[in-house]
Each structure stands twice: as C-alpha cells, then as structure tokens.
Amino acid sequence: MKASRHTAATRTWKGAHVIKLGGKTIKMFDFGPSHGNGMSVMRIPSENLGFIVDIVSPGSVAFKTMRESNPNNWIATLRQIEAMDFAHFIPGHGPPTAPRSAVTEMREYMELLSSSVKMALAMGKEPAALATDGTFAKYAKWRGYKDWVPMNIERLVTWHKDRK
Question: Is 57 part of a structural domain of the chain?
Fold first, then answer.
C-alpha cells in the first residue's frame, strides 16, 4: 500500500467566502466553533441547496459525547443556518438530502438538552435521569436515541459545570 500524502490548504477563510466551481456559485460560511472547531456550511443558491455536515444529522440525536463541541455556539450556529435561504440540504450522515426543517428539529433538540440539564443541575437533581424520564420521548425514533442521549446529557453536565 502506498503511503498517503498530506497537502496543506492553499486557501483559508473566516466568516463567509464565495467560490465558483463548475459554473456554480458556492457560498461558504465559517460560523466558528460549534459541533467542532472547523465547522463550515455551504450553500448553492442556484440549486436552492445547502451542504451541512455533522452539526445536523437528520433523524439523529447528537453523536455520542459531542466531545469537541461548544453547545452554546452549536445552537447559535443552527439559528444562523435557519436564517439561510435553501429548501433542502445534503447532510454528511443520514439520508441523501433533507428538508431545511431538519435544522430546526436539531436546534430544538439541542435547546431541550441544554435547558433540561441546566435545570436538573440547578434543582440538585441527577441529570442522568433525563435519559429515561420522558424528557426526550419526542426523539425516541431518532438514530442513537437509546445509546447516545445519555452521552449527550453527560457532555452537557460537564459543559454547564465548567461554566460555573
């Protein structure tokens, strides 16, 4: 097997950037740390299409422990994506395309996750109980529900405790 070669980036950007590729205009957005430190979203206006990887996986709760995430920025980034003009998007995981409503559904899940954990901590309750008390029942059919919701809760407990 041949050894792989790494090629350094020849172009970087912050904020927004526009490129032309194959006769199409592609608008690229860097919203800063959210799901991870290098999260970019693309929009192809002529196709009314977005390209969103990881921060939204339609029909799935957040992946495992969300270890590099910034939950507050994740929610803020989802709000910024919701304000963008596109009808469908290509996700990095899940179905080949998804409606823009999947972005709102993910934001609502993340807001419920964050606020529920924060409230449990403030009331001196055990946040882990949220995984089985019906708080997230609306998402029971989502991929990862049974195994990942407890890990999502664990991450938010750490996140909120670190901010005190």
Answer: yes
What pLDDT is recorded for position 78?
A: 96
Q: State yes or no: pLDDT of 1 exceeds 80.
A: no
CATH assignment of the domain containing 44: 3.60.15.10
Phi first, then psi, for residue 78 (nearest 5°) are -60, -40
Would you state the pLDDT for residue 34? 83
Its domain, for residue 71, covers 15-162
